[in-house]
Design a protein that fits this description.
Class I SAM-dependent methyltransferase; alpha/beta; 43% helix; 7 strands; SAM-dependent_MTases_sf; 227 residues; Rossmann fold
């Protein structure tokens, strides 16, 4: 499982390429005024850094909306010089926003309800940011995760907007599953883990990342390895 020390080390190790990617993402957002950036900076950057560290061959993204997370994932795969991404969403906005040079040869978009699709075999990194309901969480915990190899890195967005996950939400179902499995998780959510959030902010400031790409500060994502 990722720790705060691991996260800091990843920032230090990859700070130069991350600096370039931050500027690419800043330009992307400026060039597409209708694009909604659904990841805050720390969770977007940690996603990039973990892809760089893990070097997955097959990444699956469930829920990409306007393509902000998609472009972060694709830049990590580009910088690794290996790996492909398959993204699922009912809305096709990402097709218009993801730069062609990022998509070419490494990205496949599948339109429609992911529950009605056949997912790739051998998923090496799973990114979830779709319906945040308890029902959807139960679907992927019962149907999807058992087919994912043990210890595969998984990230789930919108778990901790407050100190606790909302009752009857995706987050509450997921956290109960992890607790029952004896599995831990990492988060830099400002309200749930203020100490970890502050330490990463200090690290980022030392590296010259004080100027935000996206103004959000909640960073509600969690990361864990499939039990």
């Amino acid at each position: 499982m990722l720790t705060i020390d691991d996260a800091v080390q990843l920032y230090v190790k990859h700070h130069e390429p991350l600096r370039a990617v931050r500027e690419e993402q800043r330009r992307l957002l400026a060039d597409r005024p209708g694009m909604r950036a659904q990841l805050d900076d720390i969770e977007a950057e940690l996603t990039y850094l973990l892809i760089r560290q893990e070097r997955p061959a097959r990444v699956v993204e469930i829920g990409c909306l306007h393509g902000w997370s998609t472009s972060w994932l694709l830049r990590a795969l580009r910088d690794n010089e290996t790996g492909t991404l398959t993204s699922y969403d009912r809305i096709e906005n990402a097709r218009r926003n993801v730069p062609v040079e990022l998509a070419d040869g490494r990205w496949r978009f599948v339109a429609g309800d992911v529950r009605e699709q056949t997912l790739p075999d051998g998923i090496d990194y799973l990114f979830l940011d779709a319906a945040h309901s308890a029902r959807f969480a139960r679907w992927y915990l019962d149907r999807l995760l058992p087919a994912v190899p043990a210890a595969t890195p998984v990230s789930v967005h919108d778990v901790f907007h407050g100190r606790r996950a909302k009752p009857y939400s995706e987050g509450s179902v997921l956290l109960r599953y992890l607790r029952d499995a004896g599995a831990g998780y990492f988060t830099a959510a400002a309200k749930r883990a203020p100490g970890q959030y502050r330490r990463l902010q200090e690290c980022r400031a030392d590296l010259g990342f004080g100027d935000p790409v996206h103004p959000g500060t909640h960073n509600p994502m969690i990361w864990f390895r499939r039990p």
